[in-house]
Amino acid sequence: xxxxxxxxxxxxxxxxxxxxxxxxxxxxxxxxxxxxxxxxxxxxxxxxxxxxxxxxxxxxxxxxxxxxxxxxxxxxxxxxxxxxxxxxxxxxxxxxxxxxxxxxxxxxxxxxxxxxxxxxxxxxxxxxxxxxxxxxxxxxxxxxxxxxxxxxxxxxxxxxxxxxxxxxxxxxxxxxxxxxxxxxxxxxxxxxxxxxxxxxxxxxxxxxxxxxxxxxxxxxxxxxxxxxxxxxxxxxxxxxxxxxxxxxxxxxxxxxxxxxxxxxxxxxxxxxxxxxxxxxxxxxxxxxxxxxxxxxxxxxxxxxxxxxxxxxxxxxxxxxxxxxxxxxxxxxxxxxxxxxxxxxxxxxxxxxxxxxxxxxxxxxxxxxxxxxxxxxxxxxxxxxxxxxxxxxxxxxxxxxxxxxxxxxxxxxxxxxxxxxxxxxxxxxxxxxxxxxxxxxxxxxxxxxxxxxxxxxxxxxxxxxxxxxxxxxxxxxxxxxxxxxxxxxxxxxxxxxxxxxxxxxxxxxxxxxxxxxxxxxxxxxxxxxxxxxxxxxxxxxxxxxxxxxxxxxxxxxxxxxxxxxxxxxxxxxxxxxxxxxxxxxxxxxxxxxxxxxxxxxxxxxxxxxxxxxxxxxxxxxxxxxxxxxxxxxxxxxxxxxxxxxxxxxxxxxxxxxxxxxxxxxxxxxxxxxxxxxxxxxxxxxxxxxxxxxxxxxxxxxxxxxxxxxxxxxxxxxxxxxxxxxxxxxxxxxxxxxxxxxxxxxxxxxxxxxxxxxxxxxxxxxxxxxxxxxxxxxxxxxxxxxxxxxxxxxxxxxxxxxxxxxxxxxxxxxxxxxxxxxxxxxxxxxxxxxxxxxxxxxxxxxxxxxxxxxxxxxxxxxxxxxxxxxxxxxxxxxxxxxxxxxxxxxxxxxxxxxxxxxxxxxxxxxxxxxxxxx
Length: 916
Ligand code: RAM
Hints:
Layout: H1 2-7, E1 17-23, E2 30-32, E3 38-44, E4 52-60, H2 63-67, E5 74-75, E6 79-80, E7 87-88, E8 99-108, E9 120-124, E10 137-138, E11 147-155, E12 159-169, E13 171-176, E14 179-180, E15 196-203, E16 211-220, E17 238-247, E18 252-256, E19 263-266, E20 271-275, E21 279-283, E22 310-311, E23 318-321, E24 327-333, E25 337-342, E26 345-362, E27 369-375, E28 377-378, E29 384-385, E30 395-399, E31 406-408, E32 415-423, E33 434-441, E34 447-451, H3 454-468, H4 488-501, H5 505-518, H6 546-558, H7 562-582, H8 608-611, H9 619-640, H10 644-665, E35 666-667, E36 672-673, H11 678-687, H12 695-708, H13 719-729, H14 733-740, H15 748-753, H16 785-793, E37 796-798, E38 807-810, E39 820-826, E40 831-838, E41 842-849, E42 854-860, E43 870-873, E44 876-880, E45 883-884, E46 891-897, E47 900-905, E48 908-915
Parallel strand pairs: 2-9, 15-23, 21-30, 38-42
Antiparallel strand pairs: 1-3, 3-7, 4-5, 4-6, 4-8, 8-9, 10-17, 10-22, 11-16, 11-19, 12-15, 12-17, 13-14, 13-16, 17-18, 20-21, 24-33, 25-26, 26-31, 26-32, 26-33, 27-30, 27-32, 28-29, 34-39, 35-36, 37-38, 39-40, 40-41, 41-48, 42-47, 43-44, 43-48, 44-45, 46-47
The protein binds alpha-L-rhamnopyranose.
The site of alpha-L-rhamnopyranose has 12 residues, from helix 4.
């Protein structure tokens, strides 16, 4: 703050300062290709009730200009607006490959102006695809291993800046002068390459030197060539690179991948095999020392055969700057134990099921073959059980060169595992031989939760791990078997948990593109998985509603409107496709997935997905319910975009579907939907379509069924989310809490009783037998319960009227047996925190409301002290004898609501105390 104040020349100074400037959700992004990028900032302020009323943004070509308060690219002027998220650039057209500086100042509710923020910057890549001069190149001989490229070049004078723009299919690693450039792994993010190919930008200024330099690129198969049985000519690994070097004398030199300028290619790589599913084989004896450095002798003995590269057409997709967080090695994990179940076989327990790989240190004779097999569970004899991997081998092999201590980790594969079985190790390995490497999209964790129940804390921990294990540029269903796909049905319920735990604005924007890329151009039908490979079909089962749920969550949580604008027409097409499926009676009979993978006794034995289809819940009820949900969301989108007429049309459509659903599935005599099982009754309650007068009776039926099942759920992946939430909202947090903390099958607690450190795909503990084909132990769909911890135990709720947490509600539910809970979320405006603690006399609640935000904070009224309680804030009386006394700063008013006293507050930190 002092920096800012020092720079400030304004006469009226507000003590609030804009900080944490973001452009397209990133701090100082390098290489964006968006013509009108969006700006966001937070405000820090040491007083309550801060509201921005106006802002001014300056964008300049240089820091010097900006420091003089000149925004020659854009001076927004004073804009009367409280918005500080996603302000769209409105200046002169941006140029390719330029760095721009920006800053912002704000006016508060009293009209005081702040000083300007610290400067931030962003750099463009290729706004215009014609800037690409490079050609796609490949190896002449396509061996199953990997292809390597190299090129030398001279730099004869001082350079000011250098940037490398690169993509390579399936994956690439860029090296300059013997070192890996940057820290991305498994780059670029996976897309349908015929539609869209992502490239990355690297600042390589410091990688270059005066004299001779060398670039080296290695390619892996990745998703481009994920099947090792695929005919290689159909998925030739290939790359595209453009290096721009700017000299101090103002000249620019461009080095591009091509066949003319000195590039050589070789398929004699030490990576002799690589596959996402199957693992990597690295023969260190084939290393070509110095291949990525200048002066390498390509004709030398054992240096491989190097030829001119082949020019290929490229995959055809549009080249786009990778806007989502790259996949990186996030952290290291040390094994907790190593056992030796059989001679020569060592099994490492990493203590956690995670996605990534292992790094190994080994010393031995040249040609020694060491293998690492990855698995989620063990057999009783202590060796790895890999039956649930289906055809995925998850096997890394390292062949020693025999030169001292060798360190190896793979480049072009990743695994889902807790255990590593090491075989062929020369000598006796110890606990330090292997290090776990956690690998995922480097999205920011933004949530935290804990409470006084250790089981709940463990479930939360397992959910967060499972979510993070399934973020690899696509939200995947699992990281271990031969699948790892972006299933839309899972995301329908998983997404809300995920947006509390991670900032997924960029990853979800990218995945929305993947879904649209897979959409039938004429029909508008979307697919069950995106990118669309291997499994699922088109049209998707309507349970694929994440297509519309994402933009809505992004709007609510991150204040993102662009995602709605961008995909609105496509979402409309999908909804009208569903209308076609429904026909005149508004019922969709099309269902292939439904409320998937319920407890085994509820499923059709032998149905697809290893008995994963519900035998009880009607598919048509689920499909039609989602059709309704989509119509409701379309109406909301239309409103956000100011399309009032369309909003009305979708509301009318929703009403018709609701009526049809009630006419078709609801029995007013028994108050049951369909067969009256948990899923069939809870889904209509969640959707809010149950006639008001029947609600309680339907809820009673639901509860009776839970009781009949000894307080267990019988729901599949979708309705499990809804059952917990509906019970809570309808006044039965006791039942919801009992289900969440259940420890016998089927429940999350049961998983934990079996040693789970992640969430499973099935309620059953499957290590073999007839369900093994679909028995991932690292599957986020049942992790949907994670949202309940934030929304109900911590009580943090978004508000439609204030997207991006500009308005929100804190309303904790306090089931018996729980005396403390706390949750926090780093929102686009700042940290939202809710913490409560109670004993038999008092309840303490701490809440943080970020600047430029307002909250409704609901303090529960103690049940057994009707009327006889007081509420204070910071020691000052706020509520006494049934009335708002209003003594605390920043607290505007209070209302009584469903057993809570709700206060309206501005920004600030609040400490409520309810005493009885
Ligand atoms: C399986 C996966 C996925 C699921 C789909 C329908 O392949 O388990 O998570 O939802 O089927």
